[in-house]
Amino acid sequence: MKFLDQAKIYVKAGDGGAGCVSFRREKYIEYGGPDGGDGGRGGDVWAECVAGLNTLIDYRYQQHFKAKKGVHGMGRNRTGSKGDDVVLKLPVGTQIYDADSDALMADLTEVGERILLFKGGNGGFGNAHFKSSTNQAPRNANPGQEGAEAWLILKLKLIADAGLVGLPNAGKSTFLAATSAAKPKIADYPFTTLHPGLGVVGVDGREFVLADIPGLIEGASEGVGLGDRFLSHVERCRVLIHLVDGTQEDVGEAYRVVRGELDAYGHGLAEKPEIVALSKIDALDAEMRAEQLAALTDAGAAQPFAVSAASGEGMTDLLRAVIRLLDGDNLADEAFPAQEDAPWHP
Fold first, then answer.
1. CB neighbours of 12 closer than 8 A, spacing ≥ 6?
2. Residue 90 CB contacts under 8 Å (≥ 6 apart), including other chains
3. Across-strand partners of 98?
4. What is the rounded CA–CA span in Å between residue 25 and residue 208?
5. How confident is the model at residue 1 (pLDDT cuts 50, 70, 90)?
6. How far separated are the first and last CA of the chain, in Å rounded?
7. Which pLDDT band, with edges at 50, 70 and 90, does 2 fall under?
8. Does an H or E element contain 306, and which?
9. pLDDT category, 342, cuts 50, 70, 90?
10. Residue 321: pLDDT over 60
11. Measuring CA to CA, how many Å separate 152 from each of 55, 83, 94, 228, 330?
């Protein structure tokens, strides 16, 4: 299924049905009277958060959603039925904005959440509504009210506990594949990951949701490469895991580039708790590992981890640190235990 995280749609609530002008005409009844019924109410527009969806692809091929009109009133005091509602089924994490004012209308964060976006128009009164002692034969009825309409912007922000950030080929997809049952595409060229991916990671009987975000490069905040549009998916993440490729020459510069793009993007990403990890250490000897970790520390990374998703080295300590941060612990002044040499298995 193709991933789509933004869509523009048109919605319209149903118009109310018109009232009816009618008079009783029955044999053997000398005097009739008005008996026109009221029109039915138009259908409403609802947004519902459902399970089993992780993309807005359904709104790529259909952009117009209109609720049904209310049925017109009829004689013999029959009121028209209400028009059918239209329900927008959306994945968890979808935000709904008004396209004209850019105002946030709804933020769907829980499965089963249901929000009324627009109410249908009221049905018009039939002529029976206007009868009185001084107006015993009214010949007027009201038309139904029009339903509200608007263009909406749907934005999907994946809900995850932790998010992976870093330059392209930093090992983010390999990390996700090694720690969860997710099967992201992995290759040795930049921008292998074109869309965010999710996986459930378990360690010590605990689980958390991890999001893999396409790689950033310098100038991403200005649209270079894939840009920073996918960073919206880590806005909801409580912890950032910043992977730096240990096989490149200047790991300090790589760290500063990504931090600079997080600062330029804003929305509080730069202030989120961060765990920095030097990845691909299985390709480094002990001396090179020490040099690269020192370079990361000099660049501003606090207590960087050394991990290898291929061999599992250091993975358990890193995941335990993520759990600690998710629990609200402050790890800034702690000395982490020596990292394990034994392979890690999910």
1. 45, 65, 66, 67, 118, 147, 148, 149
2. 47, 48, 49, 50, 53, 56, 96, 108, 154
3. 152
4. 72
5. very low
6. 26
7. low
8. strand 305-306
9. very low
10. yes
11. 17, 22, 12, 22, 41
pLDDT band for position 336 (cuts 50, 70, 90): very low
Tokens linked to 170: 């930093």
- What is the percent of the chain with per-residue pLDDT over 90, rounded to a whole number? 64
pLDDT tier for residue 306 given thresholds of 50, 70 and 90: very high
Token pair belonging to 259: 């931090």
Query: How many angstroms separate the CA atoms of 253 and 223, rounded?
Result: 20
Query: What is the DSSP secondary-structure string of 258-300?
Result: HHHHHHHH-TTGGGS-EEEEEE-GGGS-HHHHHHHHHHHHHTT
Q: Encoding tokens for residue 326?
A: 């998710």
Structure tokens at 342: 């034994």
For the segment 178-198, the average pLDDT, to the nearest whole number, is 81
What is the chain's mean pLDDT, rounded?
A: 89
Q: Is residue 124 exposed (0-12), middle (13-18) or buried (19+ Cβ within 10 Å)?
A: buried
Under DSSP, the state recorded for 332 is: T
- The predicted pLDDT at position 341 comes to 44
Q: What is the mean pLDDT of residues 112-136?
A: 95
Are the C-beta atoms of residues 75 and 95 closer than 8 Å to each other?
A: no
Q: CA geometry: angle at 185 spanning 214 and 181, to 5°?
A: 100
pLDDT at site 335? 47
Task: Tell me how crowded residue 109 is: count the other CB atoms within 10 A of its CB.
Answer: 14
Q: DSSP class of residue 78?
A: B
CA dihedral 153, 159, 164, 166 (to 10 degrees): 20
- C-beta separation of 120 from 83 below 8 A: yes
Q: Return the amino acid letter for 14.
A: G
Question: From start to end of 166-273, where are the E strands?
Answer: 197-203, 206-212, 239-245
